[in-house]
Structure formats: C-alpha cells, structure tokens
DNA sequence: TTGTACGCGTTATCAC
DNA sequence: GTGATAACGCGTACAA
C-alpha cells in the first residue's frame, strides 16, 4: 500500500534539500535556480507529491481552511450564498469547512468548537443562536469573523447581508404602485434573527409613511392556522368606511412565501387580485400561475463579499472597525402583484 | 492576544504529563485514576483547552475529516443527501469538508487534490467527470471511498444511490395504472452520469414489457426547443389507427421536472389530462395546480448509508468487495397523473 | 542560492 | 497507572 510521498523523499529524488522543495511549493520559485526548479518539478511529478496541509497548518497556523456555519443548509438562499463563498475560496486557494446547525444553538456551539479545533483561518457565521461570548473570544484571539445575514449584538465583526430596510421599501413601493392599499406582512418569529426584526420594523414604519394600512402576522403554528389568519385578513370588511381596497401579502423570506402560497391556493384566492410578494427568489416562483413577484438577493455577491471581508481583516489587529456590507435586492415583478390580471 | 492553550500547558496546570492529558482526551479515561481525571478536567476547563486537530492528524493520520465532492451544490437532492451525511458525521465525531465542482471535471480534479492534501479519512464522491485514475490511486492507498448516485466504471468502490430500475418500474406502473399509454421520457444528456443511462435504458425496456408506446428526448437546447418537442409529442396523431391514448411525460430528475413544467404551462396544457411525473420530490411539486406526481428519494438514508459504508471499509484492507446500496423511492401521487381530474 | 537544525501540538512506544 | 521521549511532515531562522 503506497503511502503518499513526503517532502523529504522529493528532496532526495531531486537531489535537493527540504528547504528548496518547501520554497518551491510555497510559491517562492523565483528564489531558486531554474535548474533546481526543474529537478524538483520532475521529482514531485514522479512521486505524485502533494504538500500535507495538516503539517503546514501545524507550523505557522496556515491551515488555509475557512469555516462556514450555516443555520439551515436546506434553505436555497444559504446554499446560493455558499456557492459564492466557495468560488471565492477557490480563487484564493482556500478550502471550506461547512457545518450546518439546523437552527439548533446547541449544535452551533458544538460545531464552533469543531471548526476552531481545525485551526480555521476565518469564520463565516450565519447564526442560529446567540453564541456571542464564544465568538467574541475568537475575535479577541485574532480570528477573522464575518456575520452572514444575521447580526449578533455583542460581537464586533463585519456583517454581510441584505439591505433590509431598502428591501422592504422596494416592496412597499412596488405594492403601493400596483394599487394595493392594505397589507399583511408574514414572518417567522422575529426574536432570534435580526433580519426578521429589521424587516418587520421597517414594514411598520413604511406603512405610515405611505399611508397604507396593514398588519403583521407571525407564523408559529400550523398551515391551517396560517390559512385562517390570511382568510380573516382577506375577508374582513374595509376599515373606516373607505371603499374596498386591494389587499396583498408580503412574505419575509422564501420559506414564508412557500407557506403563504400554499395557504392562498387552498383558500382559492386568485393571485394578482390578492397580491403576493416575497423576499428571496426561488425556482418555482415563475411557475405558479401568474407568477409570484419576488425580491431577489444577490447571493453570489454576498458570498464573495464574505470572503473579501475575511481577507481584509488585518489578521491580528483587532482595531479595524466592524463594517457592514448591505446589498440591494432586485424586484422581479410578476403577475401576483398585477391587479389588472 | 491570548493564544489557545496547548496540551503541555494543561499538563503543567494539572500537574500531570502530556501523555495522561492526551489519553484523557483520546477517550481512554478508564485507564487513568479518577483523581488524575478530575485534575485534568479542571485544568482543561480553566484554560479552555481544545485538542488541535491539525496536530492530531499529523501524527496518526487521524484527521477526523471526511471529504464530500458534490457535482452541483444547488441541486436540492444533493443538499438533502449532504444533510444526511452531515448528521452521520456528527454522530461519529467527524468533520465534513465539502467541495462543489459545478459539474466541471477540471474543478473536480483540483478539489480532489485539495481534499487529499488535508488527509481526509474518507471520500464521498458525486462525480461530474471521470476521475477514475485519480480515485483508483486513492483507494489503492487505502482511502475509503464511496460513490454517490453516479457510478464510475473503473473504480472499485461502494455505490450508494437510488435503485434506478425500480424507480422507473414504479413510475411506469403508476402511469400505466392511471391510464396513460403513450409516454415521453425527458432526460438530460445521459453520457456522463450513470443514473441517467440506467433510467433511460430501463424506461425503454419497461415500455415493451408493459405494451406501452413511448420515446425519449434528451434535453440539450433551449426551453423553446423543449417546448416544441413536447408539443410535437402531444399533438401528433395516434399511431396504428388505435384510438386516442392519454399521454404523459416522465422526467428523469428535478431539474428536468422544472423545465418540463415550465414548458407544459407555456403550452397551456392541462396537467392530469397531460400526465406529468418526475423523479425527485421538490418543495413546489404540491403547489402547481393539481399537484405534480413524484418519486421521492430517501435522501437522508442515502446520506447516512454513505458514511456507514465509509466506516465499514476495513481501512487498509482493500480486499472488501465493492457493494451497492440501492434505495427504493416512494411514489407521491398527485393530480398531474389523474386523468379524471 | 542552498542546506542544517529546530519547533509546531499531538500521539505511540516503551520504560517505570 | 503514569511519565519520558521519539516521531509525524513541514516552515523557517540561521548558517554556509
């Protein structure tokens, strides 16, 4: 059973020293004579040598590993961002250690410990719980950290994500333009995830600014309960004697859009007559009959920015101020917000 | 900037030797006196010590790392399997290094090299190209290997995936039962992915066995072209003077189902009257009007089996025969294969 | 430009 | 039971 060749064997095969081989693979070939380079290259090829990253990491702390902690790997948004992160890593010669917490704070702690035990050089966190203390300890130790999508109060770290206020503004403007005057905002429980809070807050502020009426409903129970609440919203009589005003639903993210669509279809609502708009673009949004209007996040850009932020960190200098990188979404207008249909 | 404590510091703090501390964390506590255990535990806690996996991996080759190479991370099926893999890893105290090849054989080679440089203890491969030589070299070196979903001719390794023949049989039986007699099988180019070939072959064999008529179309071009072909299939006159027979589409995987649904809706077809069935269950299949009938793969089980197979490999003994673990799908019948609708 | 010697944090081996 | 010591494969002063 042939073992993998080590740097020593390559050195012997090439008639050179460890040091030279090491330099060769560390990208310092310009400091070697062309002849030596050639010999080393040939030897390495013959022996199929690859530097052992474990040993490399042990020495200088250069593991070339980036850790990414995702709250829900089955969320297409997370995967899309991960795709961007991966591409950026590849361009930098970094490897990506991915852990999924399934929104379990306990698991999150476990995985955090796991990743640090592999001496990751940077950490991208899409938090499920509030591991503030653990994370702060890591940044204090000089580990570059980037928060993805979800903010964490007590941690000084860059944040990369959506411009939630702008997103809600775009949504409200679009809905108002299309003639919807009474809105129902649907969200998952906003307690633990900062974007949910930001979006909800902005929604409520945005209503009054635009003289719209509306309310928010937090999904917690069953599909049935959601459907009941939507039905109540759609069927109750218009307020204050004003004439009948078109009503629309605004969904805080992809999961909510799915649930809301299911509910609307079950209620027999006609999309468009009943407005429907969601944050996060999904495969199937164009398929549901007149098409569902969405706000698409630039997931690839978000992913790449996460790595860029990580790399921009002055390594050990923790003096750099935490920055925010907020990306603007794009409105994809479809039939579900077209009254004339 | 506080560094992470090392085993030496813990040993000193606990008044013990490196060896004992190492044993403590290697799970050999039963070979230590309770008193020593206690002292080590206390010292480790005080210093917030965590074993350095890099150093561990260097010594014994025990990186506790599993590599997973995915052809397309944005395919929900892959993510679902990955979820199962991850869970299994966690239960075994393993970490998962995930790489996405975006179906690029070049990238696949790169990532393969990357993973081995991290001394992964096992590899799960959902192949994009045919890195047979590289993989065989790895198994020869004693690295446990599992092929996921896609077979690779020249490599002796376990395969975990769908029972494709059974899946097609189930689909054909279901369609025939529901009264569809003329079928169009839609697939992506079958050249490089073994499941596509297996499914296609079985489809053609299954037709004659059931006295159904049908044909296969390989998607390669645009949506428009697909729509044209589907339209041609749906509108041409019945063969051999037999009366009009209900027609149905069978989609080889989730991506195809999406494209086919788009095409059908554009053509204004009524689902059910025109049958539609797809392999792979997706979020939105229940949403499209009468519901789209699917074959759901047991993704979680597949993922867990992949790790189980990896761990079952006798490590260095390459004598173990390559086994196949074929899972049976489940029919989720919906309106798209109900003629009466 | 090239080679020598040491250390990174851990585990395995062998004494006690 | 416990402890000293030698690897593991590599990077890097430092010397030549």
UniProtKB/TrEMBL annotation, chains A, B:
Keywords: DNA-binding, Transcription, Transcription regulation. Residues 5-60 form the HTH lacI-type domain. SMART domains: HTH_LACI (SM00354). Coiled coil: none annotated. One of its GO terms (molecular function) is transcription cis-regulatory region binding. InterPro entries: HTH_LacI, LacI/GalR-like_sensor, Lambda_DNA-bd_dom_sf, Peripla_BP_I. PANTHER family: LACI-RELATED TRANSCRIPTIONAL REPRESSOR, RIBOSE OPERON REPRESSOR. This is Substrate-binding domain-containing protein. It comes from Billgrantia kenyensis.
